[in-house]
Amino acid sequence: MAVKPKVAFFDFAGCEGDQLQVANLEERLLDLLAHIEVVSFREIKTEHSDDYDIAFVEGSITRPEDEKRLKEIRENAGILVALGACATIGGINCLKNFINESEYRSTVYGSSARWYSTYASRPLSAVVRVDMDIHGCPIDKNEFATAVKELLLGKIYAPPDYPVCTECKMAGNICRYEQGQLCLGIVTRAGCKACCVTEGSFCWGCRGMAPEANLDAAARIMEDHGFTRLNAQDRLRLYFGCTDRAFYPG
Ligand code: SF4
Ligand code: SF4
Ligand code: SF4
What we know:
Blueprint: E1 6-11, H1 17-23, H2 27-33, E2 37-40, E3 54-58, H3 64-76, E4 79-83, H4 85-89, H5 101-109, E5 132-134, H6 141-152, H7 164-170, H8 195-198, H9 215-224, H10 229-240
Parallel strand pairs: 1-2, 1-3, 3-4, 4-5
């Protein structure tokens, strides 16, 4: 990799919340800029260049024409990083994959529904090779900084492969199942320090399926606490729509 690698940010279907997290690094961003050259980043600069070493790509692929643009980015970039749940696992855009196309078209675009192309939403990895994932909705800006540092050292950042429950226990939270709530921390990849549970909610699964998740045990816990297959399915579809349709207890 170049001494000061050129970095570009791109977005597909998403809310740009992950790029905002990067912009929100503020003074740490200045430190990073001493080691990278940002040649394209629509949220913070107007100039653009197609000469880059690392591409950070946010958003999911929801239209046939997105594929051509993503493949061009892949071709230009030595390293392509998927940024956030929409890019890494399809994210909430995949909710539309469970709805009749004419219904979501008319809900979103009304009488202009036929003006726009669309197809089943999917993560970047369904179209091109992805070298590194930075998970979350939105991403954690500190994890982003860590991942960039690893890249600068010639390494690929590996996020935790165990479930959120591990971090949740370390944070001293009362398990939401004990409070009669459905929580996806038992199957979701850690790395966020169980922030949603700590803040009073439950885990929605935004970091995707943990490779080491024990799905049989998770299904049993959901059943034992009175949750049905439909309860689990509804919650899982919010983020896991493209990643694991096979896991539904009951
Ligand atoms: S992952 Fe979340 S924050 Fe990032 S683009 Fe998608 S919806 Fe927005
Ligand atoms: S199921 Fe949810 S609330 Fe319970 S320990 Fe795991 S992450 Fe925490
Ligand atoms: S607790 Fe769950 S939903 Fe919240 S940030 Fe972590 S993985 Fe995402």
